[in-house]
Fold this protein.
Amino acid sequence: MKSLVTGATGFLGSAVMRCLLTAGHEVRVLVRPDSNRRNLESFPVEIATGDLRDHRSLKDAIRGCDNLFHVAADYRLWVPDPETMHEINVTGTQALIIAAAEAGLKRIVYTSSVATLGLNQDGSPANEETPSSYATTTGFYKRSKYQAEQMVKQLTDDHHLPLVIVNPSTPIGPGDIRPTPTGRIVLDTLMGRMPAYVNTGLNIAHVNDIAYGHLLAYLHGKPGERYILGGDNMTLLQILQTIDEINGIPKNRINIPICLMLPIAWFMEKIATFTYTEPRATLDSIRMARKLMFFSSEKAHRELGYQYRPATEALKDAVKWFKENGYCN
């Protein structure tokens, strides 16, 4: 049983790769020529060099595989060139799924995101049926993932594909080498760069639990269905205080109203247009923070057997990994 995994050099993709290897899968990984391969070191995987924007390479990578786990995505909350993100997250995904369909793969697991889901005005956890639309989706990343998921659903329905969609929430844990925007929250807190907070909330899950949820979706998911793979709902302040407690350095923080953060984020984005480095706060991230991004994994628990450990354990593992790997020096 051979499975192709995209995004295996990244945070979540590498966790999915490790999970599949443990489950006895032969694993081939699609890797860009210039990718950092640190997360692949010492693992017995076959490497297929390619790119989601090189559609011929996708067909070559799929050849001889039984399954596809499409985890790769351009996950940034600010980009100088949104078209590149669209080419990867939407056009590249379409080409990959079509190639998988033409190759007759037995199973396809597509990694979407809770970014495609609606949110409840009262702050209660949203689920797979909470209404959403392109018009209410904030930011280039979320819009690209929304478009990609809609396209994947249509291809699944039109061609009766054996495809299951998973919607991870906020993965936290070891192996976040870049780090991702959510990993930066942990690292910035450890480095004393989070003196303030806004009243928002996230759903925090251990990256290894989300990875195992991918395996469960492969084993038990219903084609055409989507499943939230999440964990505990926490306010941003609770997350920061938990990291402080783990780190053993309690801190006092200032609550900044979102309306005051918007001009700060605007200024940071203007600087980023000259430095080409992702700003620590973006207009889109602040606009998203106006709502509590809380979700329920009840459907995945009920239909897949998905379970998750307490968010504190995910944060502990992330803190330990960042410290052990020199990110806090």
